[in-house]
């Protein structure tokens, strides 16, 4: 395949990340409004979005601040909620192994659920092309910018979103569009089904531990099914 | 603990988690099954995010044909499988959600 230029890769990443923003922006508004109602300062609320940059954990942290939870507990919760990112890190690492350390640090900082989902799909579809890190950077930066902006709007205007806002549903829909075509064999299907079913049964587990357990069980299922085939 | 200190450490922890294997995978020796398992990460994690959003749209499990998110999600899975088209999957999924909500008489 013809190698794209840096600029082409970057803008393809921006374009592919764009639809998911419909689901991310309402989430950013909610966080901004929630942080203010938890009596965080304007500056601290905005800074949390760039320092932590992980939506679900920020929302939980703001709620814990509001209830006067100790700093140490908040740290443990944020760490546990974000543990799934270690899986993303391992999964994307082989594609980044030849990059300079600066790039690795930058792309690690931008490695959210939404950027990971888009980037890993691209790596798996296109194979490793020369400037593909620019694609990942484009996708990650797009998400980062809209997260910072939507946080700011949430802080200053509040989250005036109707309660039946259907665009929340864009997030799972985008993940469906990325995952379903990536399932190409029985092992992959088994991994997805087991992870999904365990995930839905474990929704009440605290701090996304259900999600983590479901993902790990799904991966083990994939490995077992693949091993049996040989 | 000062809120700024908490945020700074929380940010560093999150960053370290995201950086972990990106930095370490080619420097440490990992078992062969670990590398083989990596290809299942996207479908496992994303399915574990997707399915609860469909079956528990308001927090508690709602496995019913009266759950519009579940029905629209199934339609979207079908569209994604047949067309592999991201924008079409999102558009049809949202349309299906609105239609099912209307049919079921939900606000």
Structure description:
- The complex is a heterodimer of chains A (230) and B (107).
- Chain A has helices at 6-17, 21-37, 42-51, 55-66, 71-81, 84-96, 101-109, 113-126, 132-157, 170-179, 186-201, 209-229.
- By secondary structure, chain A is mainly alpha-helical.
- Chain A has two domains: 6-170, no CATH class; 183-230.
- In chain A, helix 8 runs antiparallel to helix 9 (132-157).
- The two termini of chain A are 31 Å apart.
- The model of chain A has no long low-confidence stretch (mean pLDDT 91).
- With 107 residues, chain B is mostly helical.
- Chain B folds into two domains: 1-30; 40-107, no CATH class.
- Chain B has five helices and no strands.
- Chain B is extended.
- The mean pLDDT of chain B is 92.
- At the A-B interface, helix 3, helix 4, helix 5, helix 6 and helix 7 of A face helix 1, helix 2, helix 3, helix 4 and helix 5 of B.
Q: How would you describe this structure in keywords?
A:
heterodimer; A: mainly alpha; 2 domains; 12 helices; 0% strand; B: 107 residues; mainly alpha
């Amino acid at each position: 395949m013809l190698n794209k230029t840096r600029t082409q890769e970057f803008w393809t990443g921006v374009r592919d990340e764009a639809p998911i923003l419909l689901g991310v922006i309402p989430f950013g508004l909610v966080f901004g409004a929630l942080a203010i109602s938890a009596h965080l300062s304007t500056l601290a609320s905005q800074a949390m979005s760039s320092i932590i940059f992980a939506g679900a954990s920020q929302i939980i942290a703001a709620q814990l601040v509001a209830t006067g939870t100790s700093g140490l507990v908040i740290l443990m919760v944020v760490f546990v909620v974000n543990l799934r990112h270690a899986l993303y890190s391992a999964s994307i690492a082989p594609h980044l192994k030849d990059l300079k350390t600066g790039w690795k640090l930058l792309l690690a900082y931008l490695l959210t659920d939404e950027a990971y989902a888009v980037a890993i799909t691209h790596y798996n579809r296109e194979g490793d092309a020369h400037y593909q890190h620019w694609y990942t950077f484009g996708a990650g930066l797009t998400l980062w910018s809209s997260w910072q902006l939507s946080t700011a709007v949430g802080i200053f205007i509040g989250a005036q979103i109707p309660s039946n806002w259907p665009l929340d549903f864009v997030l799972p829909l985008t993940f469906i569009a990325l995952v379903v075509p990536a399932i190409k064999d029985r092992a992959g299907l088994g991994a997805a089904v087991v992870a999904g079913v365990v995930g839905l049964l474990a929704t009440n587990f605290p701090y996304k531990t259900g999600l983590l357990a479901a993902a790990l069980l799904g991966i083990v299922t994939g490995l077992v099914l693949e091993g049996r085939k040989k | 603990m000062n809120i700024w200190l908490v945020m700074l450490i929380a940010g560093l922890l999150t960053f370290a988690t995201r950086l972990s294997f990106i930095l370490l995978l080619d420097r440490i020796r990992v078992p062969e099954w670990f590398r083989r398992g990596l290809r299942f990460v996207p479908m496992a994690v994303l399915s574990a995010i997707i399915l609860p959003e469909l079956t528990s749209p308001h927090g508690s499990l709602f496995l019913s044909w009266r759950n519009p998110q579940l029905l629209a999600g199934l339609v979207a899975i079908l569209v994604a499988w047949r067309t592999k088209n991201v924008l079409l999957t999102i558009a049809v999924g949202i349309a299906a959600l609105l239609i099912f909500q209307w049919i079921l008489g939900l606000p």
